[in-house]
Amino acid sequence: MNGTYRNPVLNADWSDPDVVRVGDDFYLTASSFGRAPGLPLLHSRNLVDWTLVGHALERLEPEEEFALPRHDCGVWAPSIRHHDDRFWIFWGDPDQGVFQVNAPEIRGPWTRPHLVKAGKGLIDPCPLWDDETGEAYLVHAWARSRSGVKNRLTGHRMHPDATSLLDEGKVIVDGDRIPGWFTLEGPKLYRHDGWFWILAPAGGVETGWQGAFRSRGFFGPYEERIVLEQKDTDVNGPHQGGWVRTAAGEDWFLHFQQRGPYGRVVHLQPMRWGRDGWPVLGDEGAPVAVHRRPALPAQPPAAPATDDDFPGGRYGRQWQWTANPGDGWATQHSGDGLRLSCVRSADARDPRKLPNVLTQRLPGLPSAVETELRLDAGEPGARAGLVVLGDAFCWIGLERGADGTVRLVHRFGEAVAERERDAGVPCVAPGGRARLRIEAGPGARCRFSYDVGDGFRGSGPVFAATPWRWVGALLGLFAVAPEGPGHAGSATFTRFRITPL
């Protein structure tokens, strides 16, 4: 693009991003909440084009806590660092405390989660190993929903091996003492030019700003400044991210913007250090829409994968279950196509409650989503489909009737609804097959259609996708059956595609 890039550089829900450089490579991780696998790992050579290379967390722990969906819980706001020839990721589980995992290479093997600090409401942790002194530190924020505390950052000395903390902790920044500041969170900790720096947002994800704090000593006192805010741009609440310096010495800042059903999309801001020693982000503190690319080697255009042919029944790394996966949910086989078992559940009529929904992020640009489905299950009530999943849901797919026929059905559930309702008129699906399509237009307004052999037909009114509290809307594939004994059969999805509209 003529030497420029356009924000957002990751136009989907890569929430609470943090970034690190190792050699000529950049790595980014993000919140994954209650989905598994968690802690996505993205790679880039130019800070603009990113690919998903894996996950650092295979299953959430303790496993029984995440056997069922907990959409807004789990992995919150991780930090990624490279120290002592290892990658380290710290995150806060608001119900358990601060965890870390580490690995010799970005693709692993990653250690099992280690609880560094137990407690309710401990969120957004970030470590720092001080190369000048050999000491290690940890800073974290607080979730009032669990602890009754917010708007504060707490600092600890940490054992250099990151297994434990060396003190009880001290409030090092109290947002209540700063006029006009509230909901201070998401700290990222650095050393630069003889100062301890904390880059942390405040003011709330939709309306806030990005702050910077500095002190000569880790425990303070800190002085503060707002370094990025919306001003007269369209980027509301520029929020929470990480600073990275290229090998050539350029500084850049990656952060998120809250976009409703699309979740938290990721922007890249230029960064420099002003004459007064403070960081200057974006265009003199305002987010940029288009900017000169980083002075880094050219890289082919890239983005995290979305399409999948499911070779051998395997699904790509872009997919996550809505809880820790169970045995036999997806079956490998000799051909192509995702073969999902129709898992028996008392919640068969509410996909928000199902752990066996295979999801990926809703694209931030208008897109068409299409897949082909065959329902092989003979069990009455067995169903499978393509769903837009959030606080409200809408799905289209196939269901086996009591008379043995397979019908194309289209169902939805409002945010306050406990059960689904028809969104379209059911019809017979000859051969138990259908092509399913969702056109997600501006504002994530979704139109559903289907093809049972005579071309695509629209179904039902427009459905406006909705997020959960912290998670954007998801696209999902599922197969389920009513409670009962024995195996209920399976469904096969083929040729999953997402194309721009």
From TrEMBL:
Cited Pfam families? GH43_C2 (PF17851), Glyco_hydro_43 (PF04616)
Residue ranges annotated for the Beta-xylosidase C-terminal Concanavalin A-like domain, each copy included: 308-498
Instruction: Specify whether Hydrolase is a keyword of the entry.
Output: yes
What SUPFAM superfamilies does the entry give?
A: Arabinanase/levansucrase/invertase (SSF75005), Concanavalin A-like lectins/glucanases (SSF49899)
GO MF annotation list: hydrolase activity
Hydrolase as UniProt keyword: yes
- The residue ranges crossing the membrane are none
Q: Which UniProt keywords apply?
A: Glycosidase, Hydrolase
Question: Which family would the database say this protein is a member of?
Answer: Belongs to the glycosyl hydrolase 43 family.
Write the protein's name: Glycoside hydrolase 43 family protein
